[in-house]
Design goal:
Mean pLDDT: 97
Strand content: 15-25%
Protein name: Aldehyde dehydrogenase domain-containing protein
Number of strands: 22
Bound molecules: nicotinamide-adenine-dinucleotide
Keywords: Oxidoreductase
Family: Belongs to the aldehyde dehydrogenase family.
Oligomer: single chain
GO molecular function: oxidoreductase activity, acting on the aldehyde or oxo group of donors, NAD or NADP as acceptor
Organism: Mesorhabditis spiculigera
Largest sheet: 7 strands, mixed
Structural class: alpha/beta
Amino acid sequence: MSSFKCPSDLSGGLYFRTGKRIQFEAEHTFPVVEQRLGAEVARCACAPPALVDEVVKEAKTAQKEWANRTPLERGKVLRKAAEIIREHHEDIARWEVRTNGKPLVEARIDIDYSADTLEYYGGIAPAVLKGDYLDIPGGGASRFAYTRREPLGVVGCIGAWNYPFQTCVWKVGPALAAGNAVVYKPSPFAPASPVLLGEILTAAGLPDGIYTVVQGEAETGEALCTNAGVSKLSFTGSVGTGLAVQRNAAVNTLKPCTLELGGKSELIIFDDANLDNAVNSAMMANFFNQGQVCTNATRVFVQRGILEKFTEALLKACDEKLKVGDPLNEETRVGANINEFHMKKILGFIESARAEGGQVLRGGVQVHPEGVENGYYIDPAVVTGLTDEAKAVREEIFGACMIILPFETEEEAIARGNNTTFGLAAGVVTGDLARAHRVAALLEAGSVFINTYNDCEVNVDFGGFKNSGHGRENCIDALKAHTQTKAVYVNLDASSTAY
Ligand code: NAD
């Protein structure tokens, strides 16, 4: 058993510094909200730039010892953290529900997945983090070159709010495995889970100062992006903020960025699709996490021949499966949205769809489930009758609003699917496997799903094309992206050097 104990409330503080959860007081604060209840449960101080600078310096000092450990030694700490997460799985999942509003059944999956991520990077680090021996001219045994894979230093990480624990682990896992220190700034809308991760990592043996959590809004994020002591940025959030992050990464110093940004994905359902598979894929592409999933395909292109049957079966499945309610209840499939502002933004998209000639076939209204009447709940919407020019079809909604768009031909579906500046994900549902792979190759997206949607595995590359970002998370490349390669030329025969 480890020393970690999952806290029951936020009273221990929402900062994590030198191996401890702490309170930090400052003039500027933001509200911490429990979405399922629609209630403010605490206020949290925003870290001013001076504090960001202090913790980056601390991290830089602590990182040297961590970098000197072998990848195997660092990997053991991550694998121990994974073990602790599994031990406390249910408590952490319940904490995640209370910090985010997602249904418990989904939070459990996120926590499992987070443990897998730490196990994966802890496991592959010794095999991946190695150099090469390289022959060079005039060589033999006395002249050669070799490479070393070295950490970058301090990685500044900034998270979104929709997968608070998992997003944090996705960034922290490869960064720490590679020998870096991390300063993490969560979203103010879901600030609590990264602090739990700090306590878990400390209980697993991570040295103090290697993982720090500071809280705040844009000012704190910008301070991290522009800080000269930070060597790399890893950001998850909207395209607009991603642009600012990349700009600020070039102020003071030149930092590489991993940018995991928004999406407006498409799912293309052909006439020859298996109907159940088409309905399930469309639901997986739209309704997890109240629709607040970056890869979600709100644009569901359906070929004319299957349109009527698909729509009928979809509406039936929605009525049967989409139980909206308290996310802590086992049977709830749709929990609370992240905050009131975001809920109203989603409802605004549905209004705009109506105004632009769309018909809302189901849902699209705020609901007040028994016992949690003040939370931010929306009955998921299915909309039809819009053109590709409609606001709801062009912009990321980040909420449960599926839009059905009929099409005639394969070429048309591909062209319309690609007609977006986003490129995070796409899907194709068809019984014709040759067509499936042909279409998958032509879709401009970082992930393509064939006869499925929103699968996600730690060993499979995840990231965007076009404005959905660059760099990859999960996979071996994410680990390598937290290192830099040093080439060392060697001459063992001093008499051979002529000038
Ligand atoms: P956001 O861009 O508003 O905020 C993201 C983070 O950036 C927050 O921590 C925020 O406080 C911080 N921030 C705000 N201004 C900043 C600045 N100027 N400099 C540095 N940091 C700043 O996004 P959000 O509303 O938290 O998240 C929703 C968005 O994230 C959606 O677009 C969604 O698609 C995207 N997202 C992408 C992925 C992915 O992996 N591609 C995953 C989850 C969410």
